[in-house]
Each structure stands twice: as C-alpha cells, then as structure tokens.
Amino acid sequence: MSRLASPAMVLTSAVPMSKTTASSSTTTNNNSITETGSTSPAPSNQSSHHIDPKQDLHGMTLSSVCSLSVYPTPYLEFNLHLPSYTSTALHNHKYLAIHLMPPTHQSAKTCRVFAKGVKLNKRGTKWTSSEPDAKAVVANDSDGDIKNDKNGIVDSCENYDDDDDGEFFHEMTTPFTDLVEGRDYTFIKREQDGIAIPVLTHAEVIFTCKATHNFTIDDHEIWVAQVIDIINSSTGKTGGILYFNKGFHKVGESISEE
C-alpha cells in the first residue's frame, strides 16, 4: 500500500469530565448529528489541573479513516495497531474526535507528534534494533507503520529492511506531553455523558464521534464510530493533509478528463 496517498487525520480520545475544569463545552443530541459552521473550539479560560497529559490524554495519527455511511446515520471507520493507550481509552470512554488537518507546516508537525510511540517486541517490552529477534519482529510487522528511534520518527527499523506500506506507527503514544492546553488544544464537554474530548485548536474540521463497534483481527482493531457533531473552522476546502512516500503533502492540481 506504499504506492497510495492516504489522508493523515488525528484522533483524540475522551476523558472523564471529573478530571477537567476547562470552560469550553458543546452539548449535542445523542440521536442526531449537528453541525457548527465557521467556528473553532474556544480556548479554555482555566487549565485542567486534574489531568496529567502523559497519563490521561491519548491520541494518534491515522491513515485509515474513511466514511462508512452518510445516511441514515453517519459513521466513520478506522483501524489501529495494538497495543495502544488510545484503544484502552476508547474501550473505557467511547467518545473521540477525529481531526481533518489543513495542509500546513504546523499540521505536519502535529501529525508527527501523534504518530510517535514505543515499539513493543514479542515479549511486550520496549523493542530495540539490537535485539536478536529484531528482524523477526519487523517481518511480522506487516502494516509497515512508522517506527521510532531516540531522535524521533524514522521510517524503518535501523539496519533492517521493512515492507513499508505507508501506514502510521501509533503504539503506546503520549502525544499531549508537550502540548499546551488553551494554545494547542481545548476540551469539548458532553455533560450528559460525563466526558470531555480534547480537540486540537488548529484543525480544519473536527468530527466528534461515539465508538459503536469494534473487532480484533490479529494485532489490529477495526473501529466504527458514529458522527455526532461536526465543527468547521473554515468555509474553505483544502482536502486535508496527505501522507505519501514517507512525507506529508497537499492536494495538487485537478486533472483534465477531456
């Protein structure tokens, strides 16, 4: 799949509202979709002092998001690689936000941050390229996710070949560690459900969703999420940011069909 360009979208998972003191909130109907036009999430006036961004806030960059249906109920579909902090949060709290990012330098940096993680070996401990079974681990990692090293993300494990299909690596990520609440993200509260969803302030479109179905295939989970609200920060359409050939891109010129 490395020959295909994929949309790079950022997922963030909900936390219990009891952990937040942020002031921004959105109330939506559980049974219908609403759309907020030309607005951005309001910066919080108060920090969420009960939250440890590293322990409590989770998310990942996905290249697998697609529309499952629009009518009668809008659903999005995506998959993720296990183990995953975000998977645990989705199972526990159900709600999430999926962000369509504009094709900017800031978005590319954000997508990289949310793609960083800790690679686990077959024993469930941190993977290192010096391990005797390192090549076997790579061979079994057939989804070709982006790998990490101490200097940041690299596209293949050092000194080993990798059948890279262009997907993101997102195991055990803690992307909120260096983000600042009110500047980089804020919270959308669903008081009726007792949860708050962290949302990125510079996203082009935010889909707030409730996870409704999931099933496991080997070391992956496939998730289906119902869209319950759409927040547009711009009336323009950029097509979002794309991931292709180990880098980020934007939609180019249209191709004539004549």
TrEMBL record:
- Note whether Protein biosynthesis occurs among the keywords: no
Leader sequence segment? none
Q: Which GO terms describe its molecular function?
A: FMN binding; riboflavin reductase (NADPH) activity
Q: Which InterPro entries match?
A: Flavin_Rdtase-like_dom (IPR002563), NADH-dep_flavin_reductase (IPR050268), Split_barrel_FMN-bd (IPR012349)
Ranges that cross the membrane = none
Q: Which SUPFAM superfamilies does its entry note?
A: FMN-binding split barrel
Residue ranges annotated as compositionally biased, kind Low complexity, are 18-40
Residue ranges annotated for the Flavin reductase like domain, each copy included = 1-250
Keywords of this entry? Oxidoreductase
Q: What segment(s) does the record annotate as region Disordered?
A: 15-56
| PANTHER family linked | FLAVIN REDUCTASE (PTHR30466), FMN REDUCTASE (NADH) RUTF (PTHR30466:SF1)
> In its UniProt entry, what is this protein called?
Flavin reductase like domain family protein
